[in-house]
Amino acid sequence: MNYLKSIITLFIFTLTSHLSNAQEETVLENSVLWKIEHPDLKEASYIFGTLHFMCESDFNIPEKVTETLNHVDALVLEVNLTDPEEMQILQETMSNPKKISDELSEIQFKEIATLVQKEMGIPLIDLDTYGLSTLHALLLTKMLPCTQFKFTETEITTLAKEKQLPIYSLEKVSEQLATLENSYPADFMFDQLMLFESYKTDFNASIAAYKKEDLTTAVDLIMKDIYMDENATTMMQINRNKNWVEKIPEMIKTRSNLFAVGAAHLVGEFGIVNLLRQKGYTITPVFN
């Protein structure tokens, strides 16, 4: 993966990982793969809860997920970065962000500059034109004890292409970008950047839990109240999950799908698993 595509992947996926835990606790069985069934469906579909990126040495797509790709008709992602039109929209959006120095106060800029110098070894002014969102994504990579990463959506897309499966999405890039803009004002983004050390600890612990397929623990660690507020919770999780759960029944009527979405979208009162169950679907974990 080239550098530009790495940054794009980070930009679009890592910002969607911070969701609030301000909802009723719903503990799921330990599995990253869930089966969707209903008497009216000819074939089952599946949901794969992903952790968007991690060190290459930690990365693994379970065999049960790769095997599922052999039996479904399509792969469905949050957004389809294999669509050239979608990629063009994303690249155009990233090419002209607001300068970091224009978004933050002088004091805030200096505080972030100290963090960036410490973690990345470069002056913040060198990244000024990247914008806060891309800076946030770049700093997330510095939370991991490695320099080589794997992106789950990229890897599973490659597998789907090898099997000549069509790839669809639950939303458009433009929709996701609009949601991000409304969810992460500059002051809130500043607060998140300054929680670097705290989130680093929780993020690495989350990866360890995810490798055990313990989605509830993995998500709880990165969904602490300090990492989110009510506005972002509503915009980034609740509204999107409700929208997706309206689309999923239509998509699974005519074909069997593997849906690959961030694990945080599966858990909780407003998680996809619970919302689909409320609609009368049987959602069961797939074990090894």
Structure description:
The protein is an alpha/beta fold and 288 residues long. The chain has one domain. The chain is built from 13 helices and 8 strands. The strands form 2 sheets. A 6-stranded mixed sheet has the order 6-4-7-2-1-8, sandwiched between helices. Strands 3-5 form a two-stranded antiparallel ribbon. Strand 1 and strand 2 (45-50) form a beta hairpin. The radius of gyration is 19 Å and the shape is globular. Mean pLDDT is 88; it is low at 18-23.
* Rg calculated over all Cα atoms: 19 Å
What is the total number of structural domains?
1
Strand fraction: 5-15%
Overall structural class, as computed from helix and strand content, comes to: alpha/beta
Question: What integer is the average pLDDT?
Answer: 88
What is the terminal-to-terminal distance? 30 Å
> What kind of sheet is the major sheet?
6 strands, mixed
> What's the number of extended β-strand segments?
8
- The 3D shape can be described as globular
Low-confidence stretches: 18-23
* Discrete helix count: 13
Give, in spatial order, the strands making up the sheet with the most strands.
6-4-7-2-1-8
Helix content: 40-55%
The secondary-structure element order is HEEEHEHHHHEHEHHHHHEHE
